[in-house]
Specification:
This protein has 4 helices and no strands. By secondary structure, the chain is mainly alpha-helical. Helix 2 runs antiparallel to helix 3 (52-72) and helix 3 (52-72) packs antiparallel against helix 4 (75-105). The chain starts with a helix and ends with a helix.
């Protein structure tokens, strides 16, 4: 049992290690950073807040994860990240449009 687990972990984390894995980990770190940004902003405001940086981290991490998923030929991951990136882009569009409209009110 232990040798099977060791063999599996070696295969996943050592034998398959390449630059795509490095990109995947960097993308996941960027994507995960959005939660820290949101958490810190909410703690400072004392209420739930979704700062613009959340959407930028979502777009950056989502795009890199999408590229990683394409390289791995994973249809589930491709579909999930592809839809996610569309949603993140749409949200940043709304944020920027609202800022632009607010600037024109003055």
């Amino acid at each position: 049992m232990l040798s099977t687990l060791q063999s599996y972990l070696h295969d996943v984390f050592v034998a398959q290690f390449d630059w795509w894995v490095v990109l995947g980990f960097a993308a996941q770190a960027l994507f995960s950073a959005r939660f820290f940004v949101q958490w810190i902003a909410s703690e400072r405001a004392g209420r739930s807040v979704v700062p613009t940086a959340f959407w930028w981290f979502s777009i950056g991490g989502g795009l890199l994860l999408f590229v990683y998923a394409l390289s791995r030929r994973d249809p589930v991951f491709i579909a999930g990240q592809g839809l996610g990136v569309f949603i993140y882009l749409r949200n940043i569009y709304f944020v920027l449009r609202e800022r632009r409209e607010g600037a024109n009110v003055v």
